[in-house]
Every structure is written in structure tokens, then in C-alpha cells.
Amino acid sequence: MAYTRSKKIGLGTALFFALFIALTGYFVFAAIQGDYGHLRRIQVEAEEKRLKEQLKILQFGRAQLENKTYRLSDGYLDLDLLDERARKVLGMARVEDIIIR
Q: What DSSP assignment string belongs to 48-67?
């Protein structure tokens, strides 16, 4: 007597495949859109690039301020810069200066 297998899918097999497909779908979704997913990584890299550019701008501004501070310090006094800053802050001008408004 030959053994013949039934062509019907059993309930256990159907549940197994349904669970397998559900878990696979969940992990694929999490890999793409989750907190540590592919799209989040792209957002983080874009923000990192923006912040690095902002850091370069701030470092350049800081270098300019350090230069002006050094030029006005006791060890190195730039008289032209001191004169310019005093005029701007105090709102004064020399007699021979021409003021344009």
C-alpha cells in the first residue's frame, strides 16, 4: 500500500506562514522607517552636514573676534582699530571727517 499525502494545507502550516510573513513585514518596516532605520539615518546625516557647515561659520566668526580682541589687548594695540571702535561706540568724528547720512 502506497502512502499518499493530502494536498490540503494544515492549519498549523498556514499559521506558521502567516506568522512568518507578519514578522518579516514588521522587521522590514522597522529597518526602513524605524527609529534606527534607513530613512532616519539619512535624516541624521543631513542634519550632521548642516551642523558641520554651521560650525565652520561659527569658528570663522570666533576667529575674527579673537583677532579683534588680540588687536585691542595690552600686548598689541592697533591704534587704527581703537580709533575706529571709539568713534563708532561714542558717535564722534574728527573735524576734518566728512559725514554722509
A: HHHHHHHHHHHHHHHHHHHH
